[in-house]
């Protein structure tokens, strides 16, 4: 195993960054700097190479999971947490809306701006709900489901239970289409209609359902589906 201290000083990732600037540092070196240390069998640089070998391209880091990281030899809880934190920090830097909590939701575009970086490249469908007070301010955000969206898995009980617990007076649902096409499916229409009817019955209306695609979104409210 080649240890970082065995590498000539001028060739070490940190020293190269300080001397030449971050722009010229390779993906392998950036990961090595984040990891700080290697494992018993690998240096931090070799471990970084191992991580990259598990990806098709560097952008795949955006979708890597904690569980996947733990399957890579040399990656434990601490290093997995560091890498996920770095990825999430990078995602948040590209968000125009940094925090949805307390936001007054006047339009679907604001919701899209918050969720687009988080959801548009996901390989699975994610279902979120926003719970609003009487002034349409977000009092709670909850991730309800990850997987393949279908009617049976998105039960109104789960959505409106949270509404009661948070004292919400209205609900907005958000989910993504991994295909990148935000056009609603028949399943989307069915789920939306069912949630709308249940919300009206309970006095906690569903005021919008927003689908996130690749650089696009679909709002049921903006398309007159709720009028």
Descriptive report:
With 227 residues, this protein is α+β, with helices and mostly antiparallel strands. The protein folds into 2 domains: 4-93, DNA polymerase, domain 1 (Orthogonal Bundle), CATH 1.10.150; 108-219, 3-Layer(aba) Sandwich (Cytidine Deaminase, domain 2). It contains 8 helices and 5 strands. The chain has helices at 13-20, 27-35, 44-53, 66-70, 77-93, 108-119, 156-166, 186-202, and strands spanning 125-132, 138-147, 170-176, 206-212, 217-219. Strands 2-1-3-4-5 form a 5-stranded mixed β-sheet, with helices on both faces. Helix 2 (27-35) packs across helix 3. The longest helix is centred in the middle third of the chain and has 17 residues, at 77-93. The chain is elongated and about 70 Å long. The mean pLDDT is 85.
Strand order of the largest sheet: 2-1-3-4-5
Order of helices and strands: HHHHHHEEHEHEE
Helix content: 25-40%
Q: How many helical elements?
A: 8
* Spatial extent as radius of gyration: 22 Å
Q: N- to C-terminal separation?
A: 67 Å
Question: What would CATH call the homologous superfamily of the largest domain?
Answer: Cytidine Deaminase, domain 2
Low-confidence stretches: none
Judging by the overall fold, what is the CATH architecture of the largest domain?
Answer: 3-Layer(aba) Sandwich
> What overall form do the CA principal axes indicate?
elongated
| Largest beta-sheet characterization | 5 strands, mixed
**Approximately how much beta-strand content do the residues carry?**
15-25%
Classified by CATH, the class of the largest domain is: Alpha Beta
Sheet/helix structural class? alpha+beta
Classify the fold: give the CATH topology of the largest domain. Cytidine Deaminase, domain 2
Count of distinct structural domains = 2
Mean pLDDT level: 85
Number of strands: 5
């Amino acid at each position: 195993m080649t240890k970082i201290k065995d590498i000539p000083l001028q060739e070490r990732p940190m020293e190269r960054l300080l001397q030449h600037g971050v722009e010229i540092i390779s993906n392998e070196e950036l990961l090595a700097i984040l990891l700080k240390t290697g494992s018993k069998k690998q240096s931090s640089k070799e471990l970084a190479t191992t991580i990259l070998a598990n990806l098709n391209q560097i952008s795949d880091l955006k979708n890597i999971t904690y569980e996947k990281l733990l399957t890579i030899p040399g990656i434990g809880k601490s290093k997995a947490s560091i890498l996920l934190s770095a990825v999430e920090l990078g995602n948040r830097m590209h968000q125009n809306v940094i925090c949805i909590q307390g936001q007054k939701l006047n339009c679907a575009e604001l919701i899209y701006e918050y969720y687009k970086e988080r959801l548009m490249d996901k390989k699975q469908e994610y279902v979120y709900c926003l719970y609003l007070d009487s002034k349409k301010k977000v009092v709670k955000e909850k991730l309800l489901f990850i997987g393949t969206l279908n009617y049976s898995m998105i039960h109104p009980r789960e959505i409106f239970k949270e509404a009661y617990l948070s004292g919400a007076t209205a609900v907005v649902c958000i989910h993504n289409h991994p295909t990148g096409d935000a056009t609603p499916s028949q399943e989307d229409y069915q789920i939306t209609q069912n949630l709308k009817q249940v919300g009206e019955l309970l006095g906690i209306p569903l005021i919008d359902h927003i689908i996130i695609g690749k650089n696009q979104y679909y709002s049921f409210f903006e398309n007159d589906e709720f009028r």
